[in-house]
């Protein structure tokens, strides 16, 4: 008896029946899901590996960078250490250097060379042949330039003398000298500046302004000094100190006299005698460089004039742009008179300069002393006010020359020596400085 096989059935969820075919499809779907899962898992694992590899490379690169930085710091520290050693050696080598950076040893050598030159009447060739003279001194002497019977002073000796000149001179405290090479320096008044304004589309046309200029001529300033013969036999330091103190004081005083009252004929022209400042009273339109008057024929003040008004008027005559850096200039006698002036409240106009730069402050501006400015008196110009640095120009040619001076009267047991420096000075901007005249 044959039996017909029947399809195995089972209850499906929900009360239906599921066949083997359904299970096969289900298994197939499950296998596909598992396959996709494994594929995704492998992909994720590969991504993780890649990330781990990338992070490792980054860490390696970062570590490499850190090592490079550390090595560079080591190199830098080694360089700093070496520079410190070099600086220490340089400091030891220049111990005792003076203001111009020259070592005390070099300074002593040049001082001795200068002393030998003076002791031997500036006969350098005889000194160079003397076996008793050291090689360093001979080398210093050989470097000197001969000029008209004398020689340029060794640079360190020149600086020692001129530094004292510049410290003593009243005018040079506010008007530093400028270097020059020629015999004449041409200076444009007001700097030769022209200013125009217009639309940005307009072309900047060529300007044909004719600026006024001042020729500042360079002159020889000579000083002669008697030196005791016994001092010539002393140490070089004492000799140079003696010369420096005496020559520098004389030169500084002469310079102040020239910068204030020099005639301009074979010498610098002083600002207190410049015609633009002294010829006529101030007028804003017709004579902006003119002077102010005290209102008193022969003084600063009287019963009708307190002196304060004249000083304020003088300030107002100087343009505001020039007042930055402005100073007063007068001599000590005038300073004593000004120091006792009072305002309408009985307060002194004069105040102490807390900075110590000036001997006093007058109406907010420092007072500079030049003893060669006029005293208070009829028709005199005892006070100046303004930006002296802008108004006046000083030029210095380098090189201080010295020689044994045979032109002066001989004095027993003393020898005369001459010194020459070259300088020029003149007013280059009259609008920057004004004078006060004792006049009613």
Helix content: 40-55%
Distance between the termini: 165 Å
Order of secondary-structure elements:
EEHHHHEEHEEEEHHHEHHEHEEEEHEEE
Proportion of beta-strand residues: 15-25%
Just give the CATH class of the domain at 271-393 and 429-437.
Alpha Beta
Q: The biggest beta sheet, please?
A: 7 strands, mixed
Secondary-structure class: alpha+beta
Order of strands across the widest beta sheet? Answer: 9-17-14-10-13-12-11
Which term fits the overall shape?
A: flat
CATH topology of the domain at 271-393 and 429-437: hypothetical protein PF0899 fold
Radius of gyration, in angstroms, nearest whole number: 44 Å
E-strand count: 17
> How much is the average pLDDT?
84
Ranges with pLDDT <50 over ≥5 residues? 1-18, 92-101
CATH architecture of the domain at 271-393 and 429-437: 2-Layer Sandwich
* Count of runs of 4 or more consecutive helical residues: 12
Would you give an account of this structure?
With 440 residues, this protein is an alpha+beta fold. It has helices at 20-93, 104-119, 124-129, 135-142, 155-168, 229-232, 236-261, 275-278, 308-316, 320-323, 332-338, 388-391; strands at residues 10-11, 17-18, 146-147, 150-152, 178-180, 184-188, 213-217, 219-228, 292-293, 327-330, 350-351, 361-362, 365-369, 383-386, 392-404, 414-427, 433-437. 40% of the residues lie in helices and 19% in strands. The strands form four sheets. It has a seven-stranded mixed beta sheet. Strands 3, 4, 5, 8, 15 and 16 form a six-stranded mixed beta sheet that branches. Helix 2 (104-119) crosses helix 7.
């Amino acid at each position: 008896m044959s039996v017909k096989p029947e399809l195995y059935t089972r209850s499906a969820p929900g009360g239906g029946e599921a066949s083997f075919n359904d299970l096969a499809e289900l298994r197939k779907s499950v296998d596909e899901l598992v396959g996709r899962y494994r594929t995704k898992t492998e992909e994720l694992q590969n991504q993780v590996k890649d990330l781990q590899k990338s992070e490792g490379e980054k860490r390696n690169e970062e570590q490499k960078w850190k090592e490079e930085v550390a090595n560079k710091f080591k190199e830098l520290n080694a360089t700093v250490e070496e520079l410190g050693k070099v600086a220490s050696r340089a400091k030891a080598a220049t111990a005792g250097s003076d203001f111009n950076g020259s070592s005390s040893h070099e300074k002593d050598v040049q001082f001795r060379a200068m002393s030998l030159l003076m002791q031997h009447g500036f006969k350098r060739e005889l000194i160079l042949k003397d076996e008793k003279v050291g090689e360093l001194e001979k080398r210093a002497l050989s470097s000197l330039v001969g000029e008209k019977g004398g020689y340029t002073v060794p640079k360190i000796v020149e600086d020692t003398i001129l530094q004292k000149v510049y410290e003593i001179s009243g005018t040079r405290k506010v008007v530093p000298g400028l270097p020059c090479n020629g015999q004449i320096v041409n200076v444009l008044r007001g700097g030769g500046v022209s200013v125009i304004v217009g639309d940005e589309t307009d072309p900047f046309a060529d300007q044909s302004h004719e600026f006024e200029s001042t020729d500042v001529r360079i002159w020889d300033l000579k000083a002669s000094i008697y030196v005791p013969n016994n001092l010539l036999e002393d140490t070089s330091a004492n000799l140079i100190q003696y010369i420096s103190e005496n020559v520098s004081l004389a030169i500084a005083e002469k310079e102040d006299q020239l910068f204030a009252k020099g005639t301009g004929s074979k010498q610098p022209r002083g600002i207190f005698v410049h015609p633009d400042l002294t010829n006529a009273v101030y007028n804003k339109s017709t004579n902006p460089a003119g002077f102010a008057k005290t209102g008193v024929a022969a003084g600063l003040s009287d019963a009708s004039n307190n002196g304060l008004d004249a000083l304020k008027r003088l300030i107002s005559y100087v343009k505001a742009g020039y007042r930055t850096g402005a100073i007063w200039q007068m001599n000590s006698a005038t300073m004593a008179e000004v120091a006792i002036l009072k305002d309408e409240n009985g307060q002194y106009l004069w105040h102490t300069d807390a900075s110590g730069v000036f001997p006093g402050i007058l109406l907010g501006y420092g007072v500079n002393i030049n003893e060669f400015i006029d005293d208070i008196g009829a028709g005199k110009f005892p006070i100046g006010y303004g930006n002296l640095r802008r108004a006046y120009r000083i030029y210095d040619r380098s090189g201080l020359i010295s020689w044994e001076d045979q032109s002066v009267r001989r004095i027993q047991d003393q020898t005369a020596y001459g010194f020459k420096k070259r300088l020029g000075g003149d007013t280059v901007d009259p609008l920057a400085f004004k004078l006060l005249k004792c006049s009613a």
